[in-house]
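Predict the 3D structure for this chain.
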Amino acid sequence: MAKIKYNNILNTVISVMTSAKESGALHLYADGNSINGRKLQIDGKDLFNFGTTGYLGLEQDERLKQGAIQAIQAYGTEFPMSKSYVSHPLYRELETLLSKIYNDHFVVVTKNSTLGHLGVIPSVVNDGDGIILDHQVHWSVQSAIQPLKLRSVPVEMIRHNNLDMLEEKLKKLQSKCNKIWFMADGMYSMYGDYAPIEDLIGLAKRYSQLYLYFDDVHGMSWKGANGSGYVMSILKELPEKVILISTLSKTFGASGAVMVCKDQKIQERIKNFGGPLTFSIQLDPAAVGAAIASAKIHLSPEIYQLQKELYDRISFMDQCLKNTRLPLITHNDSPIFYIGTGMPETGFNLIKRLIAKGFYTNLGIFPAVPIKNTGLRISISRHNQQKDIEDFVKTLQKEYPKALHDTGTNINRVSAAFGRTIKGSEKSKQLDKKLSLKKYNSIEEISPSFWNERVGNNSFYDWDGLVTLEKIFKHEKTPEHQLQFFYFNILDQNDKCILSTFFTYGLWKEDMLAPSSVSVRIEKERKSNPYYHTSYCLCMGSMVTEGNHLFLDRDHMLWKQAFDLLLEQIEILDKKLNPDYVILRDFDQKDTEIKLYLHKKGFIQVAMPESAVFDTFEWKDQKEYIQILSKRSRKHFRKEILAFENDLKIDYRQSINNIELLQCYKLYQSVKNQNLGLNTFTYPFSLFTHMKDAPQWEFILISLKEPDQNLVGVMFCYKNKSGIYTPAIIGMDYTFAYRYNIYRHLLYHTIKRSKALDYKRVDFGLTAGFEKRKLGAKIIEKCAYLQAKDNFAMESLEWLRTD
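Done. Predicted structure below.
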């Protein structure tokens, strides 16, 4: 019945990155006639560079430059042949040198690490194997795994460095899979933290099926014997059950990547048929020439001197930061330092400030990090002089609080965003004297007229409706039916309301808006584990209610300050309740002003199922109603509704008896089990018990006239005092639903009943827009804005998609 759009992460990424680009933090262009590594020129301004991944500075080494030049002069700008036929004359030398770097292990050179993963992973993972991903493993690894879904290779995901979760997944897959590949980064590119290599090797010894696949491109050169990288610095020798991908670019200073393994059969398999390694053009001569020069440095004692020089700079940077109140998120000995800003707009502001002061660094932003964990990703290289580092930290220390002030935040809120206590926390700022905030824990603390005039004139969350919802959901026993309610009114100095809304805190299914194919798979798991893939959410409105839950006077000059104040209160609740998600819902998808505002505040836009309203009541009878429909819809109406009128009995009831209530509840459960397009928890029976005799609720019942008066459809309808008729819940018997088009009859009789009661609008709610449109309803594209503790649930659900 419900056809909805699933939320594609790509669309969200594009939207967030566009906001960052428009703010001047991303997609910049370097200019100038030369680059020396220490400085970068952007828009004609020289900037000290704290954003490189060339940590040892080898890309500026004269030996590498000469190696590239000599290779071009000898062999041309490229060698346009596949390695499957003929390798470049310099390739054998490069492969020999790389093998020596890795203790004579077997190597395969690839064009870059992304193509390396695309070539290696499908070659080494067989049908019958399984994959487990660390959810922060690099995008290029995850991308290379996508084709394996077509081979029915199961893919699971664990939270970052969570070994207990990894072991649970191993136990789950070990009876189904031959080999189980765990894939992770050696060193992670955002926070500069590491994979727990030794613990993983221990697990691989305990579980014979476990094999390890590491992307160590950020650990290369600056760490390990012969610059072999972070993973090898821990392992010393590569075990049989480990495959390593590293890079010849970034810190290595050249271009390309290298796969390392201990099994020659794996090497031969990849070289013989490694996807893009077979069919793509190989590295150009310049890249091979530079890589040979770099490899020779790596195999000389000089590499340890270069590593020490970098380490001295890393230590100096660490010491400088220790003497500040700047929020360093992770403490380690890597060349990456992550300074949290929390909200994206604070990061945008700080980047622009640093550029104005002569310094460049990178911005860590969604999807590389959760959107509210935006921050500066500062990288240290040998190009950075001690004075550069000292001046940079001093400048950062001065500009950071200014960026916080400009964007209405503080260190305490940054700390909360990262879920930790950061040195230098301070009290939240006092409320703007121009605004007053009123908080309530029950709707009964608010005047019915005040609420209904602003928020309650929609759907069944008017004052009376919320009194009922509180009585039911505040006292339910099961976790999924327990809700806490929070109400907010924000007024100006003249007591004029600018903003009014309510939030609830409760347990949600993470796959609520996922494709039904995902929910089908998850529901199988929920038979034994009912709270699998569920999370606590702090949500504007509630899971039960639908419609516009926010009153916001956009004509008021202080509406943004009022919204800022609301978000600060939500952060306070977030810190107290620790939900996995904060959701602001039911916004117009085309409202670009709200979209930009909330993106900068750390929320990402997600699509909601389309909603529908009917408000065209300028007709007297069925004949005139049919005329308001399109020509095609009139045809559908006659064929799908009028044709079955004589077979069905329609009752409009103010109340129902207990037997009928049980019948209606079973029909609701039937729809709930059948329709996973909008997958929510089943509502508690106590809600339906209340509806049975409540004056605000009534029932549209459809029965078969023959043979035995079977009840085959029900619509639970709420009568809002503002003249809104809301068909809130539906139930159907699927034995007859399609034969008699029961759903369409329920929709039509909802309109007919609303007309008879002289109501001004029908709020049809979410999903099935096509069916509602055919009956004259207007379709409304809605969106929500989401803020997550991390990206784990969103990314792991993507791996359950089969469409």
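Residues 1-6, 422-430 have pLDDT under 50 and may be disordered.
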